[in-house]
């Protein structure tokens, strides 16, 4: 059975871009006669708030996007994430790391590899077990040993990870080179997004992930992590992005305005704008629910 999800971070109210992702995931679930879940990704506790969670759920409800079961909060699932990390450590597929961001940057600079990748530094492997481990220092974070994961599957350390995106087509990435040994638990004790999302998708039985195109780059490392944990890999569909006036992705970090508030007519207008961004036809409807029903078939014809 198809199970999809919308997984917002409660750092502020929904905006036009997040409504596009919510609408796409809802339509895909309904087009496949499946279930649609909402997961509140509040694992980054300092940036998230219960008020934002309440606002997001109210916004979804006002737009007719009501989950089939009560929403799940990542902040209540620490035990699941710890169990996954323990499993990886026991299998030799994860290790503790003592390096600070400054130290990582310094090592990369000496190697002539100082460029950042999407704001992150590709870890040089200083604390890998085969490189001497922590060198007597205290662990700050825990990382996935990407090469060990690939080699356990009988693949070279620099192997390509392939997947098929339902919209973008064939995709691949050399995770060990492009991403490196990414963090599973941060130095501040918080769980990293990659571990939390992989564990939660499996625990909730997610068969299809529909999300924004900006998250395409996360897919390969999530597949490596899924395989390391013995978890199934869902199908992926990455939707077009809504861009701001500066040409960058519309986001809370990019000062995106919250969705306009109002009654049913305003909610229909918000949904219409999201539908246009997804290449769906304009419809005439007096309520969000009526508009949503009219887009299920066009979506199914495109992505069914």
TrEMBL record:
InterPro entries tied to this protein: Glu-Q_tRNA(Asp)_Synthase (IPR022380), Glu/Gln-tRNA-synth (IPR000924), Glu/Gln-tRNA-synth_Ib_cat-dom (IPR020058), GluQ/Sye (IPR049940), Rossmann-like_a/b/a_fold (IPR014729)
Motif mapping: 'HIGH' region: 8-18
Residues bound to Zn(2+): 97, 99, 123, 127
The entry's keywords: Aminoacyl-tRNA synthetase, ATP-binding, Ligase, Metal-binding, Nucleotide-binding, Protein biosynthesis, Zinc
Any one GO BP annotation for this protein: tRNA modification
Keyword Aminoacyl-tRNA synthetase among UniProt keywords: yes
PANTHER family the record matches: GLUTAMATE--TRNA LIGASE, GLUTAMYL-Q TRNA(ASP) SYNTHETASE
NCBIfam families: PRK05710.1-2, PRK05710.1-3, PRK05710.1-4, queuosine_YadB
Protein name, per record: Glutamyl-Q tRNA(Asp) synthetase
Organism: Brachymonas denitrificans DSM 15123
């Amino acid at each position: 059975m198809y199970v999809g999800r919308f997984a917002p971070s409660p750092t502020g109210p929904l905006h036009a871009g997040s409504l596009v992702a919510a609408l796409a995931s809802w339509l895909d679930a309904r087009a496949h006669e499946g279930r649609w879940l909402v997961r509140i990704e509040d694992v980054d506790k300092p940036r998230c708030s219960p008020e934002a969670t309440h606002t997001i759920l109210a916004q979804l409800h006002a737009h007719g996007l009501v989950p089939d079961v009560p929403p799940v909060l990542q902040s209540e699932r620490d035990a699941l994430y710890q169990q996954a990390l323990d499993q990886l450590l026991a299998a030799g597929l994860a290790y503790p790391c003592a390096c600070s961001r400054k130290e990582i940057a310094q090592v990369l600079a000496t190697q002539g590899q100082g460029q950042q990748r999407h704001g992150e530094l590709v870890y040089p492997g200083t604390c890998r077990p085969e490189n001497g481990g922590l060198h007597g220092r205290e662990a700050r974070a825990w990382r996935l040993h990407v090469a060990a994961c690939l080699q356990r599957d009988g693949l070279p350390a620099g192997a390509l990870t392939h997947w098929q995106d339902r919209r973008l087509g064939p995709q691949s990435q050399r995770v060990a080179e492009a991403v490196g040994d990414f963090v599973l638990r941060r130095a501040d004790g918080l769980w990293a997004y990659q571990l939390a999302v992989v564990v939660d998708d499996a625990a909730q039985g997610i068969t299809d992930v529909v999300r924004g195109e900006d998250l395409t780059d996360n897919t390969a490392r999530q597949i490596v992590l899924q395989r390391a944990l013995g978890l199934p890999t869902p199908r992926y569909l990455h939707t077009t992005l809504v861009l701001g006036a500066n040409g960058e992705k519309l986001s809370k970090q990019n000062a995106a305005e919250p969705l306009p508030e109002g009654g049913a007519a305003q909610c229909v207008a918000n949904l219409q704008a999201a539908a246009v961004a997804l290449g769906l036809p304009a419809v005439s409807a007096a309520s969000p629910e009526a508009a949503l029903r009219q887009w299920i078939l066009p979506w199914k014809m495109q992505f069914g």
